[in-house]
Design a protein that fits this description.
By secondary structure, this protein is mainly β. It has a single domain, classed as Porin (Beta Barrel). Helices cover about 5% and strands about 55% of the residues. The strands form two sheets. It has a 16-stranded antiparallel β-barrel with strand order 2-4-5-6-7-8-9-10-11-12-13-16-17-18-19-20.
Length: about 325
């Protein structure tokens, strides 16, 4: 995996769902295989106030995406093929509108092979946020990049071996998730993560993700601790892209917490607030805080419009500056 390009592309997930293809338009069945397409169009305008820099306002639609899904059930097996692309295909997001491959995988019963979310991505109970580029930063889904892997699900467990972040690693990156879905919509996710970092050490960490329902409302809590996690949280030594988990040839640990509350006003309106904090045990005190609040209106079941305010205390490239942003958006799913 060319990890630097993955980071520069900021291939992170949309806050409107952790799994691909939540919407789909059925095309029909051909030769015993069912085909469907899905995706959405999203247009957004952003006002940005950079700490110590100039303010600006801009629009973009790169997040718009389309996918194709094929499902075949025969000989006692369910086979799924899925491919999806969006328009963040430049070397750095926003520099052009080239098509970029997001997902391309085959799932045979409970085993997945191909390019899709890392095992660490599945550690997080995600918030209902509008910020595609920086939404989950500071959790184990912070980059939410997709990589080539093999993953198997059984009895609530997901075991994943994936293309390593460290291009010189001798072992794959590993993740084990255990998901427990409880009555009333409550959910608990336990995750162990291990990888070989740039100094040759094999290190690990853990995370807990949780969702608690309060009537129609929900409270999410995510937490993580360990070494080798900066590659996934997006927060690391000096906020570095190249080696976020090594300083002076030693592994760097970090601890983080991410909380959010979703308030359902009625069937058409909902509001969300969230806070993220990460403390990194490095000489530069590369600590991270983020705040966000939004209001979303479901004009129809397929059309959302919304506004979101967010604030970051660290910069990550020109599209995630230190400072504040206000986004207004419209999103039409199909």
């Amino acid at each position: 995996m060319n990890y630097r390009n993955s980071l520069l592309a900021l291939a992170i997930a949309s806050g409107f769902g952790a799994a691909p293809a939540t919407h789909a338009l059925e095309l029909g069945t051909f030769n015993a295989t069912n085909f469907s397409i899905g995706g959405y169009f999203k247009a957004e305008g952003v006002y940005e106030k950079v700490d110590g820099g100039d303010s600006r306002i801009f629009g973009r639609s790169n997040q718009s995406r389309v996918n194709l899904k094929a499902i075949n059930k025969e000989h006692g097996h369910t086979i799924v093929g899925f491919v999806e692309g969006d328009f963040y295909g430049g070397t750095f997001p926003g520099e052009n509108n080239d098509l970029r491959l997001r997902h391309a995988f085959i799932k045979i019963d409970q085993t997945t092979v191909g390019q899709t979310w890392t095992g660490q991505f599945w550690a997080v109970a995600y918030h209902d946020y509008l910020d595609f580029l920086g939404g989950p930063r500071g959790t184990l889904g912070g980059f939410n990049f997709r990589t080539n892997l093999i993953s198997h699900e059984v009895a609530g467990f997901r075991f994943t071996a994936q293309d390593p972040v460290n291009n010189d690693a001798d072992t794959p990156d590993l993740a084990v998730n255990y998901s427990l879905n409880l009555d009333g919509g409550h959910r608990l996710i336990l995750t162990a993560s291990g990888r070989e970092i740039e100094n040759g050490d094999f290190v690990g960490g853990g995370a807990i993700g949780s969702k608690f329902m309060i009537g129609p409302h929900s409270f999410n809590l995510n937490a993580h601790y360990g070494e080798g996690l900066g590659a996934f949280t997006g927060v690391g030594v000096n906020n570095s892209l190249a080696s976020p988990d090594v300083e002076d040839d030693d592994a760097v640990s970090q601890a983080g917490v991410d909380v959010g509350f979703r308030y359902v006003i009625n069937s058409e309106w909902r509001a969300n607030v969230a806070y993220t904090a990460v403390e990194v045990d490095d000489n530069a005190d590369t600590n991270y805080e983020a705040h966000r609040a939004n209001l979303i209106h479901a004009v129809t079941p397929d059309l959302d419009v919304g506004v979101e305010w967010r604030k970051y205390n660290l910069a990550f490239g020109p599209l995630l500056p230190e400072g504040q942003q206000v986004e207004v958006m419209a999103k039409y799913k199909f």
